[in-house]
Amino acid sequence: MSCYEWERGTFKLSVTEYAKFKKSFMNGMKTKYEKAYEDAVAIHADILKQAKGKRNVDWYGLFNANRYVRITHHGYFSTITEKDRDSFEIAFRSMFRKTSGSCDISKNCRPLKPRKGDFSIKTKQKNPSFSFEEANISFDDKAHTIHWNVDENNHACETAHEHEVGKMFFQLLGKVNWTRGTGGEIIGNDEYNQDCDYAGGGGNLTKASYGPIGKENRRMAFSY
User: Fold this and answer.
1) 151 vs 87: which has the higher pLDDT
2) Which residue range forms the structural domain that includes residue 92?
3) Binning pLDDT at 50, 70 and 90, where does residue 29 land?
């Protein structure tokens, strides 16, 4: 059943906790992209192997065939789902990059070997921001805040939370030592709640709260 939903939240951390969170998150993203590079190299080798001895090869088709995986549910039925979309987008740009006298992204041409530099990130960059699926995570180094945003789409929040980056984000958030003046909350809504036809129904919901700020916001919300 479809469910269009969205959510967003801002979290204020202490100077010490912000530095710890950001370092751990950036190192996690570095590891993610290193794995994405290894996968891209393997995909590139597999594509060349499948195309060996063939003419008029559909290079884009071979690449896209690697985007999906069949998942069996409880041994009864299976579905086709897309793998890590953002990693595949980087792999595509790297393999089908435009170079002088070589591969032009506008043509169905032989993929180039992925460049490791295309999958690297600077772990100490200022105010980093990462997007995946329908979600975005951004850092504000000056304010020591972290923003979580999921745009409205079908099962968007569910998908974002199940993504490896989303899982890492909330695992780290759960380890934060919340002190006075820190914390935050996640506000969201979905199509079913919005359809409520009783008085006062359909408003945005507090989906999660953290630290003293989150606790105070919940107290204020229930005091009206």
Assistant:
1) 151
2) 4-222
3) very high
Tokens 């980087």 — which residue?
Answer: 90
Burial (Cβ within 10 Å: 0-12, 13-18, ≥19) of residue 118: middle
Helices (H) and strands (E) counted in the chain, each on its own, are 7, 8
User: 189: which strand partners?
Assistant: 6
Tell me the per-residue pLDDT of 70-126, one tens digit each, with 9 for 90 and over.
555 455 554 445 667 788 889 998 998 876 455 555 557 889 999 999 999 989 999
Helices (H), the chain: 15-51, 59-64, 85-95, 156-162, 164-173, 191-194, 211-222
* Structure token digits, residue 92: 């595509």
3-state secondary structure of 24: helix
Q: How many structural domains comprise the chain?
A: 1
- Are 43 and 91 in contact by the 8 Å Cβ rule? The answer is yes
What does each C-alpha distance from 48 to 43, 55, 58, 191 come to in angstroms? 9, 12, 11, 46
